[in-house]
Amino acid sequence: MRFVFKTSYDADIRLFKHRAQAVWYFLLLLLVLATPLYFVAIGDAYLLGEITGVLILAIAGMGLMLLTGHTGLPSLGHATFMALGCYLNINLLGAGIPWIIAFPLSGLIAGLLGTIIALPVLRLHGVYLALATLAMSILTSDFVVMAEPWTGGIAGAAVPDINIFGMEVNRYSTPYKFYYLVLFVAILLVWFYRNLLRTPTGRSFTAIRDSEISARAMGINLTRTKATSFFLSATAAGLAGALFGHSAGYVTNETFDLVMSITLLLMIVIGGLGFIHGAFFGAIVVGIIPVAIANGRSFLASTFDININIPGLESALFALILVGFILFEPMGLYGRWLKIRTYFELFPFYRKDMFKRQKSYLKTDRVQ
Amino acid sequence: MSLLEIENVTLRFGGLVAVDNVSLRVEEGEVFALVGPNGAGKSTVFNLISRFYDPAEGRITFDGHDLLGHTADQVPSFGIARTFQNIELFEQATVLQNLLVGRHRHRRTGVLSNIVFSPKAHSEERRHREAVEQVIDFLNLQHYRDKMIGGLPYGVRKVVELGRALASEPKLLLLDEPASGLSVEETQDMAFWIEDIQTQMGISVMMVEHDMGLVSAVSNRVMALSDGKELATGTAAEVQSHPAVIEAYLGTGEISKTGTSRA
To answer: What is the ipTM of this complex?
Structure first.
């Protein structure tokens, strides 16, 4: 058990609670920085591409986490913002704007457009908001087809390579550079996210999530704060979309479909709603499952001569995992990790119901 | 000029008149209590001041500002803080975070400055923490500082909600049944705190309360409401012995001669 003695206000403001935590995150940083070395050594960068894909998903996941996990607004339409970011990026690059400007700009414009689209539906709550955003997601592929001059329609559009001051970055020819680029964006966004959570903006988001009436009584403007959250969320999704485009190389009207929106939501639920870690844990699970299924299939085929070719096996497994999490671990993977950590920290005094949420008290006084 | 002035305010829900032509004034530095049977419209008066409801008629002014010209989220900026009858805390956040949300009206930095954690945001954050720690000291919440609200007992939640309102450094504190569900000791603590809030911090308090012990102990003036109408205003003793008040609580007849101490 560790006791942290706080002697200044900064002890609560700081990014890391104590030195040991800072050391662990520093080691994690070293690990992710050194990962490409391993792939250089084995001379095969295929898995590094998968890891980069996981990081891109995690960026989109952070966007959705801010909206759903921290502001309490579910969205089934985040693939739409990814599509916006991706196509904006392609068109801005096509217009000759350098990547270093086009990339952040495409995220910001996606955020703005997303907020404009979202403003009318922000008055909705819970499942109604989810349905409204679902409709948005369903319309996306049609809009991509309709906006053919900019999107290439059904035929699709090729994504130009990244060029940063003369340095070419391409997923296949320079996988290591692309990995570091995505990693940089991801770390930057984590830092922004952490800053948000330790300042009034982030606290006003969580206030709205937990009690709108009380948030208003504390002077928080609901519409403006929700719109801010939506903007930041859609911006992150837009940036992820732009990176996704670079990673895929070629995007069509079916790239950013409803399944992607649902996958993003599944991801953050599996990872743990309300934790930045959750976006990463969820992305890892979503990234690993297809690889694991493919490996499992070839393993069964090669050693036991069993050939499994069931269509829709991945979706079924996803669904099973999700149901399992909702039933047995509503706090997600990060919640499970917290429990394991507490178990060892307090050994042998951990109690089984330590994280059990107490029944909330009556809320009969709700106005409206 | 009084701090809070409510003049001839009427609120109707369809055919039901919840607040019927009520006028009251809360002076600077006083503790003003609203009492009355269930459904008398006490909490409704609070929700009118908080601008959760729009009155059909009447005027509400606070510190020279016309509250009816402002929305609910602008009310705290004038210096009004409130608690709720059934506790509306942010359950998935710690006590510290809850109190920090109370500081929202003193926020001076924008989203961009927050995202990059500019030096200005940093120094603002330190100021908020300092103010919140003072509230934690005042209410003896040190032990619960980093605990999630979801796991706290009812009595502590009541205190945290008071703390969140205090953290905003208000001029007027609206307490909606501060002692409901509290034990005798907790109610005494609450009484001491309300006294300190009035005398040491110079904050005016308006409260809705059923516990006449607490009301008599801390309030300067009391108003009794029934069916949305004012019955009597005066000191706690005056109001408790007022025939209209006794009738509202106990009805007419023999039984009204029995004790009125707990009104």
So the answer is: 0.90
